[in-house]
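pls design
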C-alpha cells in the first residue's frame, strides 16, 4: 500500500498499501446491498458533490486555471469561522474550492467511485487488518459510529478541495475492496500525492495496479498535474513493483519520514512526471 494522505487528524499509508493514502470520493454508484448496516444513509453528503469540481473534461487541470484547486498561501488544516464578518476575514484569500469526485472504470473488473455510507463493511474489514489502521485513519477498534465518521471525512476532503478520495469496487458484485486517493495539498507547487490500501479479500486480483494506473492517467492527462508521487515503506516490495509497473521511478529514501504506529519509519519516494511518457507524448501510465 502507498502511504495515505493524513486525514484532518494526524495519521499516515503503504503496501498492499502505499504513500499518503486515501481515507477516499462523479456521481455515486449503488450501495453494497444486504451488508449495509441498518440506519445508514446512502451516498455522500451533498457538500461532497457541490461546487465546480474537476471532473472529466472540465477545463484546465487543478492549479492551472482560475478558481481551480488549492491556492498558494492557504493552510490546508486551518478552520474558518463561519460566523465571522471582520474586515480581516473579508480580505483573506479564498480557500480551496469543492471538488466533484468522478466515478470511473478501472478496467473490466473494477471501478472507482465516491465513498458511501453503505461502505461500512469495507471499513470493518480494514479495521481488522494488522497494518491498515497504523497508516490510515481507519479506526483500530471498529464501531459503526467511528466508521461513519471515517466516511464523512472522505466527503469533507472533496468538499474542502483537498483531494479526491475513491472507494475501489469490484464490478461483478459491486463489493468495495479498497481505497485510493489523489491528494492536492502541494498542488500550488505543481505536485500531488497518491495513496492506496486494499483489504485482504481484494488482494491478488490486479485491483491495486488497475486503480493506480487509472488515477495516475486521470491526474496527469485530465487534470494535468505536472508531478505525482508515492511514499512506500522499503520492505513493501509488492507495492513498489506495482508503482514501477505503472511507470513511477524510485527517487530516494526519506529517513524517518512518517509515523507508523508508535515509531517513525523510512519511506521510499516514487515520482512520475507528466513529461515522462514515450516520444508520442502519452504518459507512461497509459496502456
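designed seq:
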Amino acid at each position: 500500500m502507498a502511504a495515505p494522505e493524513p486525514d484532518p487528524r494526524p495519521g499516515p499509508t503503504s503496501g498492499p498499501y502505499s504513500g499518503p493514502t486515501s481515507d477516499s470520493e462523479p456521481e455515486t454508484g449503488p450501495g453494497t446491498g444486504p451488508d449495509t448496516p441498518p440506519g445508514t444513509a446512502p451516498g455522500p453528503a451533498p457538500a461532497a458533490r457541490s461546487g465546480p469540481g474537476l471532473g472529466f473534461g472540465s477545463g484546465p487541470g487543478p492549479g492551472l486555471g482560475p478558481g481551480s484547486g488549492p491556492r498558494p498561501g492557504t493552510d490546508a488544516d486551518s478552520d474558518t469561522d463561519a460566523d465571522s464578518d471582520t474586515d480581516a476575514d473579508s480580505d483573506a484569500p479564498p480557500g480551496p474550492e469543492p471538488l466533484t469526485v468522478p466515478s470511473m472504470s478501472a478496467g473490466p473488473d473494477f471501478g472507482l467511485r465516491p465513498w458511501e455510507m453503505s461502505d461500512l463493511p469495507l471499513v470493518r474489514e480494514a479495521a481488522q487488518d494488522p497494518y491498515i489502521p497504523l497508516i490510515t485513519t481507519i479506526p483500530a477498534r471498529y464501531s459503526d459510529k467511528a466508521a461513519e465518521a471515517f466516511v464523512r471525512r472522505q466527503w469533507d476532503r472533496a468538499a474542502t478541495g483537498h483531494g479526491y478520495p475513491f472507494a475501489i469496487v469490484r464490478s461483478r458484485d459491486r463489493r468495495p475492496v479498497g481505497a485510493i486517493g489523489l491528494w492536492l495539498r502541494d498542488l500550488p507547487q505543481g505536485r500531488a500525492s497518491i495513496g492506496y490500501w486494499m483489504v485482504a479479500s481484494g488482494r491478488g486480483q490486479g485491483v491495486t495496479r488497475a486503480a493506480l494506473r487509472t488515477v495516475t492517467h486521470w491526474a496527469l492527462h485530465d487534470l494535468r498535474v505536472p508531478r505525482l508521487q508515492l511514499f512506500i515503506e522499503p520492505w513493501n516490495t509488492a507495492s513498489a513493483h506495482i508503482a514501477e509497473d505503472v511507470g513511477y521511478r524510485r527517487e530516494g529514501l526519506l529517513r524517518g519520514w512518517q509515523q507508523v504506529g508508535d515509531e517513525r519509519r523510512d519511506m521510499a519516494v516514487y515520482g512520475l512526471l507528466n513529461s515522462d511518457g514515450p516520444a508520442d507524448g502519452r504518459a507512461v501510465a497509459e496502456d
